User: Fold this.
Amino acid sequence: MQNWQFELVGLDFVPLGEVLNASSRQVSIHLNKLDTASFRIRMDNPVAEIIAQCEGFIKGWRNGVLVFYGPILTAEENGEASGATLSVNCISGGWIALNKRYANQSITVGAGKRTNMDRAVIVKNEIAAANEDDFFDYEHGVDTTTYPVSSGEAITYTIERYTLISDLLRVMQTGDNTFDWRMLPMDNYSGGVVTGPKHTGFTAAPVLGVDRPEAIWEYGTGRANLQSYRNVVSRETQITGAISLRGSDAVSSTFGGTEMTKWRLMQEVVSTDISDAAMASDLRQAHINTRKAPRRITTWQPHIDPTGLRMPEYGIDYEVGDLVRGRGVANSQVRFDGIFRCWGVDFTVDDNGFERANLILQEEGS
Assistant:
């Protein structure tokens, strides 16, 4: 059985104690997306009043390893027949840096131009610069020096004034040579002392993850370590034509050739705020490349494994971004058999402390 602990940390990063007797515990770890956590406690819990004011952070520990660290985002109190409870949602410590800070706040003309600079390093530098603002000297908590940052491609680009850093990150990820990123939790309390305000590390690479041929899940055959699976094919976000608007009268479009013949024309405005024509074209093409066919997402739900021996172990045998193996047989038919990339893991912990790790995947080449 895995050992999970949720720890409440004050706004000054000093630990305030473990969140005991929490139910509905969940931690979701993602690639190219902020991690989240949630749980529920009774209002007579010793730490409930602090959490109810969203005045703190939550650390999520799994077998003594820090897998989540972020601010309390929402706290909802509900009175029920059995008493009052508090439902709590938390988000990665990178939330402020990406969604509450802006790039290029200079009034100097041309200050936003970045020449022959790596795409991911552009984002990294703007995250770092947001901590050096002359008027608001408040840390957002993200470290940009501990982990490697590179997209593998240099570009020349002008950042518009007051571009939200999450929007800049989205733009930098467009094009044929995109990159992966993560916000990794970092413990900033050691030996009874707060070691600094940095609690999250930004990392990026052309591809985050490695091939894990020994990480194998099987449904209805072999190891039979999957309790269930789900394959969803959806056309909801499908497009064969992408439009970008620049200024009051500039309209540009990109179309998917053979896809339009098969699926007909389906258009969407994908950008209204990118003045750089080349970057706008890259963005349109990236949308076509990823959305020209119906989206196929696979979810695996492994069995609960108290022994820890029946299936691959997260953090040891695989992590998000890695390539894993899967095979499923149902009704005497092979329903899936191939290599899948792990885009996310949703950990749920029941009231008895048993963990289930649901994997979110996409088959390679799909």
User: Anything to note?
Assistant: The longest strand covers residues 333-349. Helices lie at 48-52, 95-99, 119-129, 165-172, 257-263, 277-291.
